Amino acid sequence: MIDLAVLGLLKGNELHGYELRKRLMELPGARAGAVSFGSLYPALNRLERAGLVKAVEAGVEAPRRAPSSGSLAGELAAFRARHNLSAPGGRSRKVYGITEPGSQQLLELLTEPQPDDDRTFALKVAFCRHLGPAERVALFERRRADVTARLTERRRHQGRDRLLDRYLRSLTERDNLALTHDLTWLDGLIAAERSAPSQETAS
Amino acid sequence: MIDLAVLGLLKGNELHGYELRKRLMELPGARAGAVSFGSLYPALNRLERAGLVKAVEAGVEAPRRAPSSGSLAGELAAFRARHNLSAPGGRSRKVYGITEPGSQQLLELLTEPQPDDDRTFALKVAFCRHLGPAERVALFERRRADVTARLTERRRHQGRDRLLDRYLRSLTERDNLALTHDLTWLDGLIAAERSAPSQETAS
DNA sequence: GTCATCATGTAAGCCGTTACATGATTGC
DNA sequence: GCAATCATGTAACGGCTTACATGATGAC
Question: Which of A120, A124, A171, A175 is the best mutation test for B, with the most CBs of B within 10 A?
Fold first, then answer.
């Protein structure tokens, strides 16, 4: 989940951890991108060790390891820091970019056929522009099947609606509505995909 | 979460673990009650040790500990097994009921004011019949505030809609719709609560 | 000069899952 | 008799959170 989120965002943007999280939090879809720093930073380090992302324009690192009295590196850092100001390419923070293996891994994550939970699916949609039209449709169709299955499951179990109190009934109705809306939405996505000029955005 | 689910279901029904899970899985609301056996059974034991639930009609337990050759207990178990068939009060399974402290704990879990994630909120609604009207409205109002906050947050961040690709735009729209529908639903619940004959279902 | 925000990290722990082990009962 | 389902558990592990520690920078 967090790998998908990180790789998806880094594909196209070079970002440092803090900014990455800010963007993640802004992603739509039921808090899909919500992660804590406590899991983001270790994840970034892990992905870097795995070669899926790499630090770019790394700039000043480990100035505190410098035993020499002359704080050359420190001065440099301060100078750089005075001039960066948020534009992608800042200094003194660790800016990451995606690597080729990282891009491949992103595609694999987006393509894996196992059923997604809601948050993962939202993330996949958020980054599905990196897929080709066929894989995109496959993604939507798989989800469609999942939602349909849930709906029919629900209908199987709801015969005893009369036995439920009003709150459970209301909850059930809400659930059915939400699932139905999702189906409609997915159908729209699929239809659009099939009729659209099919602009490839392959890897 | 699992405590809420277990206590909520046991309030009113006496059930064994397997049946408990089956009912949990049937609860509406975005897979709200989905739990694995691997977490359910330990949870039941924990709740029992804490005195929040207790085994009732324990019936045949530990027949394998009986060293005597005469398999009296075994025979009895077999006899019972032939006749129980799913009706609450089965044998050879561990049937649990809620205790007074358990009921109190359930009320506390239903009343705690911290914001709920979607699944927890669904569970609270599923069992909110055990609350009084005032606490119920409070529950709904809190959720309403949460959803409203999410909506305005979203609106703050979506000025650059034009920058997003069609999939992110679609996802954002879907999200807005879902949140809006939820708001309407909550408003309906609140209105119904306020205008209803206010049937108390206190602890 | 002090406070909020930016920025990166570590450690402990929670809460749940999957996989495994075991055995009784039911239906064919 | 054999398979599917019912039924209860344990062990290992995974992923994420909270809380903590640290420090630079910017605004006033």
Answer: A171
Distance of alpha carbon B94 from alpha carbon B45, whole angstroms: 11
Per-residue pLDDT tens listing for chain A (203 residues):
999 999 999 998 999 999 999 999 999 988 899 999 999 999 999 999 999 999 987 544 333 333 333 333 333 433 343 333 333 333 478 999 999 999 999 999 999 999 999 999 999 999 999 999 999 999 999 999 999 999 998 888 766 666 789 999 999 999 999 999 999 999 999 999 998 765 555 54
CA distances from A79 to A35, A55, A58, A75, A76 (A): 32, 20, 15, 6, 5
- Give one DSSP letter per residue of A76-144, joined into a string: HHHHHHHHHTTSSS-SSS-EEEE-HHHHHHHHHHHH--SPPPHHHHHHHHHHGGGS-HHHHHHHHHHHH
* Closest-lying nucleotide for B3 based on CA to C1': C15
**C-alpha distances out from residue A54 to A51, A123, A134, A164, Å:** 7, 22, 30, 55
Residue B42, nucleotide of least CA–C1' distance: D9
> By C-alpha distance, which of B127, B103, B113 is closest to B29?
B127
Tokens for A122, please give them: 């939202």
Query: Cβ contact (<8 Å) for B171 and A30?
Result: no
Which residue, chain included where needed, has tokens 């993640």?
Answer: A24
Q: How far apart are CA A190 and CA A200, in angstroms?
A: 15
Q: Cβ distance B150 to B62 under 8 Å?
A: no
Closest partner residue to A26 among B28, B157, B181, by Cβ? Answer: B157
Quote the pLDDT of residue B187: 98
Contacts of B104 (CB under 8 A, 6+ apart): B203
Closest CA to A182 of A29, A8, A34, A2: A29
Nearest to A129 by CA among A28, A191, A200, A39: A200
- Judged by phi (left if over 0) then psi (alpha if -120 to 50, else beta), residue B34 lies in beta
pLDDT in tens, B66-106: 333 333 333 333 334 333 333 333 347 899 999 999 999 99
Chain C footprint bases within 7 A of protein beta carbons: 6-12, 15-20, 24-26
